[in-house]
Amino acid sequence: MAHFPDMQAADSNGQRLARIRMRRRWTQQRLATETGYSLSAVKAFEQGRRALDRPAVILSLCRALDCHPTEITGGPVIPPQSDLAGQAAVAGVAPVRRAILRHGRPARPSEEEAANVDLVELRTRTLAANNDRHAAQLANTGETLPALIRDLQVAAEVSEGTARRAAFSLLTTAYECAMQYLYKLGHVSDATLATERVVWSAEATGDPLRVLAAQWYDAGEFLSIGEHDEAGAIIDDALTALTRMPSPPAEAVSLRGAFELKAALNHARAAEQDTAERHWRRAEAAADELGGDRNDWHLQFGPTNVAIWGVSLPVEMGQGRLAVDRAKKVKLPETYSRERRSHHHIDVGRAHFYNGQRDLALEAFLHAERLAPQATRMHAGVRETVGTMLRTQKRGRLVELGIRLGVV
Asked: Please, which pLDDT band fits residue 335 given cuts at 50, 70 and 90?
């Protein structure tokens, strides 16, 4: 078995936390007092002896230190030059950013551009971009999105009536794709900008369900920075509207279930376990009502997704045993997106790590990497967990993964 004695670990979340704390001129005891964590826990986080990977913990530290979560988690990650696929994936970030910045500005299309608007062709291209994203083909996504967004902005500007609403619906989907692409690559601020575009363009479709689907992403933005009350208000308003809907169509039931899952996550990160479990059970009931998996607005809701979230939620709360037990019952169809399957295996890996099952954690991370290489390598939780493992066990495949992640 190969050994790598000279490898140097990259910065951990704990090291970044220590720098932020010292910048505030706080002692470790002050941070412990302000957050409610023990002094020994703060020391373990900063020294890298305890993984600082759970969003709920990171957010509680951020609230105390008045910083953004990315100041602790780092990012965006720059792939090494040897990672040609990673380099190709991030090459589209700047062009995508420029494209979403132009939202709301006059498109000023040429006569040829205006004359060549073809909504059927644009729908095909939008579907292809989303398929690439779900297949974890981030390089393809970044390459195709800028021109697609530009053409959809032109279509939305020059079209009228039903055609205009259809163009905005496609533009909403393209912005969702851009948001997910940027988020996966760690460009959180740009992803937030894309989310704003999702909400604004959805409102122009005139479709109440499309607007609610956009708000699902908007709630996620507040959740990601620990604004639980604001996220909860968006979720509660949406659930109220969906629950009051008479004879709701299947897509409304699907959306209601997706919001129940978002509510469960919000409460899990707020350390409200019983309420999180109650919302997850409501989502389970909605999935049973549907009787199968759906992909309305690319939210992938149904029995499979509810089962996946049944693993994610205990991971959020640091309950490794419950997560592993539930993971044994999850059956992921091969038709399910590589992106979503890889994220599930990341959750399983983190659950095994919490249980002290480091070999099983490594296997799960490697499985996730095979499904979605770039998304796995840039996942903040994977990078922190693997970095923590490396500080006590620098050998073989673990180091090789660490090198690909850029944490050694």
From this structure: confident
User: Which pair of tokens denotes residue 286?
Assistant: 């909605």
For tokens 């900008």, the residue is 193
What's the helix, strand, coil split of the chain in %, to 5? Answer: 70, 0, 25
Structure tokens that stand for 219 in this block: 């709630």
Identify the weakest region by mean pLDDT among 72-81, 99-108, 163-172, 355-364. 72-81
Helix 161-184 and helix 208-224, axial crossing angle in degrees, nearest 10 = 20
Closest CA to 211 of 194, 226, 223, 198: 198
Tokens of 154: 């032109």
- Terminal C-alpha separation, the chain: 18
Number of helices and strands in the chain (H, E): 23, 0
Q: Which amino acid, 406?
A: G
The number of CA neighbours under 13 Å toward the Cβ of 31 is 28
pLDDT per position as a tens digit, 321-331: 999 999 999 99
Query: Cβ contacts of residue 78 below 8 Å, gap of 6+?
Result: 90, 406
Give backbone dihedrals phi and psi of 395, rounded to 5 degrees, phi first: -160, 155
395 forms beta bridges with 3
pLDDT at 3 over 50: no
349 and 362 in contact (C-beta within 8 Å)? yes
Does pTM surpass 0.85? yes
pLDDT one-digit tens code per residue, 171-181: 999 999 999 99
Sign of CA dihedral 100, 123, 209, 316: negative
In sign, the C-alpha dihedral spanning 73, 368, 80, 390 is positive
